[in-house]
Design goal:
Blueprint lengths: L1 E6 L3 H12 L4 E7 L2 H7 L7 E4 L8 H11 L4 E6 L4 H10 L3 E4 L4 H12 L7 H14 L14 H11 L4 H8 L3 H15 L4 H10 L4
Parallel strand pairs: 1-2, 1-3, 3-4, 4-5
Helix pairs in contact: 3-4, 7-8, 7-9, 7-10, 8-9
Length: about 210
């Protein structure tokens, strides 16, 4: 069972998401909030696996909320669901610690699939968001001076990182490389250390920006 918190200020959208999640086997909506402030007041008392977060919220923005949640628990999984697909907001959300970024016109089946991917260790993004990320760095790439640790990824670590950049889950990466899930997690820990990052989304951003895969 995947337990999900929804943070969305639009009553109709919030209720629709709750109905979708609660009406699907193995998915459960633990709580819903219309703003980050109310979420943060109750977060320690809630049992959940994933936070589904809007960006444009009354009061504290979703991006600020992501930063605070990650400070409270660096392992929390936060999936952005918003109408906005501007480059700056996408990168701000990923750098703040979001595990994935989806637009609200994402079909319900794909949204549920993305929640599962994030839960399994992936970094799901809407296809148009993934293209924006890649295009942005291709168009704006400058000569990057890799530090010694960034350039020192092993071939296997690059394969694992490549799978992450493509949005695959830990299980999918393990299956494609014919290794165990624990081995993939071991490689993740080494990759984080070498790239000086603390989350999958940070690793994806740095990998694309520096052309590591």
């Amino acid at each position: 069972m995947i337990n999900i918190i929804i943070v969305e200020d639009n009553d109709t959208i919030r209720e629709g998401l709750k109905i979708l999640i609660d009406g699907t086997d193995d998915y459960n909506c633990t709580a819903t909030f219309s703003n980050c402030e109310d979420l943060l007041k109750k977060i320690k008392k809630l049992k959940f696996d994933i936070v589904l977060m809007d960006i444009d919220l009354p009061g504290m923005s979703g991006i600020e909320g992501i930063k605070i949640l990650k400070q409270m628990n660096k392992d929390v999984i936060i999936l952005v669901l918003t109408i906005y697909d501007e480059n700056e907001l996408v990168f701000d959300a990923l750098c703040a610690g979001a595990s994935g970024y989806l637009v609200k016109k994402t079909p319900p089946a794909r949204l549920l699939e993305a929640i599962r991917e994030a839960y399994d260790g992936g970094a799901p993004m809407s296809s148009q968001i993934a293209r924006k990320v890649v295009n942005f760095f291709q168009q704006n790439r400058q000569i990057v001076h890799h530090d010694e640790s960034s350039a020192n990824l092993t071939p296997r670590e690059k394969e694992v990182l490549g799978g992450l950049v493509e949005g695959h889950s830990i299980k999918a990466i393990a299956d494609s490389l014919f290794i165990s899930i624990e081995t993939v997690r071991f490689h993740f820990r080494n990759i984080y250390k070498k790239l000086h990052v603390h989350s999958q989304s940070e690793a994806v951003v740095k990998a694309i920006k520096e052309g590591l895969v």
